[in-house]
Amino acid sequence: MPRDPLIGLVGKPSAGKSSTLNSLTDATSKVGNFPFTTIDPQRAIGYLQIDCACARFGLQERCKPNYGSCVNGRRSVPIELLDVAGLVPGAHEGKGLGNKFLDDLRHADALIHVVDVSGTTDAEGKNTRGYDPSADIAWLRSEIVAWIRGNLMDKWGSIKRRHIAVKATAVETLQNQFSGYGSTSAVVARTLDRLGLKEPLEEWSDGTIDKVVNAFTDEKFPTVIALNKIDHPDADKNIAKIAKMQDPNTIVLCSAVSEIFLRKLAKQGYIHYSEGSEFVDTREDLIADGDPEGGGLKELDEKNRNRIENLKDMVLYRFGSTGVNQVLSKAAEILGLTPVFPVRNTTTFSSGASDSKAVFRDCVLVKKGSTVADVGKKVMGDAPIAYIEGVGSTRVAEDQIVSVGKNDILSFKIGRA
Questions:
Q1: pLDDT top residue among 33 and 350
Q2: What positions does the domain OBG-type G occupy (predicted)?
């Protein structure tokens, strides 16, 4: 199954980007047969938590994903992550690994900006105290905008002349310039629709070009702001400041190191912990609850016992979780991703051999507004499709929109080319 879209992780040195990436891709608690996989040094597979279609039909026990896992109707769907390295102020001028950073960035459909909300690292990731992390958010965006605007303005004269000569639309001309950022005509069209510009492209002022570049940046690189290290004493004041400056729907509070620590202890048999949960049970907790065997857990030493208690107080009870799972969920939300379940039989929901009892083996993520035909292209490629069935073997038109609970379980029937 295809695993796009691609989510890019960005962040200055020491912001916790590596910890966040590791916590998103750690599959130690997965029961499916899709282990943590590094595609190359910069790409890896994370797991997006969704409600699986199996729960709608009471088929949780028979749901056996080919990739990821499904536990009691809660499914972990693989999604590709990109570690975008080299973020420092002046990247658009080639500072640090600036050119490579921007080249990698253009492949991403959305960004997760990991910000050290403790204020204990400066703009270059060096140890300090009292740094304002809101500055990091501002200059990441300014770097991207400056990069795109600089490239556009370098050729603006010739762009205008060609635009007039070939009588192109604004969408066509801008797409020719923005295709190098992984853009599509639809992205450019949404950018211009958002602005509602009246004047023709050849008459755009510098101010109008600035508006276009900013709107395009928002459209092409929607960004989740992952405020990391929330358990630090200085984090609260910085969180409050950033919350006033940014759209709260783009912010996630997280502690990547806490998530990694909890998963490690769970894997080693010291605690019961489900990723993304606010609850942690130790051997002592379970004995106190009446289980004389303590759930079969090992006994924690005093150091780790104290660390668990502090983590509960500073992170889990205060914020409801470590926030790591919510980071990917928020990225999926801003992209408007919809899970779709391709099956062979839309009555039994099987996908493999006719005698197999396993259901909903596959799941793909598609952008909001995708049609049944879009899903068919993504799943079947260029294979000729005779017709498409939905639940109960009913025919589904190709122009139907897919959404959760509607046209999201599909069977593609092969026809002749």
A1: 350
A2: 5-274
- Cα pseudo-dihedral 348, 350, 356, 361, rounded to 10: -140
Helix (H) or strand (E) segment spanning residue 252: strand 251-253
DSSP codes, 222-242:
-EEEEEE-TTSTTHHHHHHHH
Rounded CA separation 131/22 (Å): 25
Classify burial at 399, counting beta carbons within 10 Å of its beta carbon; exposed 0-12, middle 13-18, buried 19 or more.
Answer: exposed
Alpha carbons within 13 angstroms on the beta-carbon side of residue 404 total 12
What 8-state DSSP symbol labels residue 199? S
Distances in Å between the alpha carbon of 170 and those of 185, 203, 234, 271, 396?
10, 11, 48, 59, 35
Point out which residues pair with 281 in neighbouring strands. 272
Token representation of residue 360: 């909903």
Using one digit for the tens of pLDDT, what is the confidence trace for 51-94? 999 999 999 999 999 999 999 999 999 999 988 876 666 665 66
Which are the contacts of 318, defined by CB distance < 8 A and separation ≥ 6? none
Instruction: Work out whether strand 69-71 and strand 74-83 pair parallel, antiparallel, or are unpaired.
Output: antiparallel
Residue position matching structure tokens 């038109």: 397
Q: Burial letters for 249-270: b for 16+ Cβ neighbours within 10 Å, e otherwise?
A: ebbbbbbbbbbbbbbebbeeeb
pTM: 0.87
**Measured distance CA(388)–CA(163) in Å, rounded:** 42
**CA-based diameter of the chain, in Å?**
83
Structural tokens at position 245: 């400056």
Residue 111 in 3-state DSSP? Answer: strand
Contact in structure between 131 and 31 (CB atoms under 8 Å):
no
Residue 82 near residue 91 (C-beta atoms within 8 A): no
Q: How far apart, in whole angstroms, are the C-alpha atoms of residue 177 and residue 148?
A: 10
SS3 266: helix
Q: Quick one: which of 59, 79, 54, 77 has its CA closest to 67? A: 77
CA atoms in the 13 A half-sphere facing the CB of 179: 7
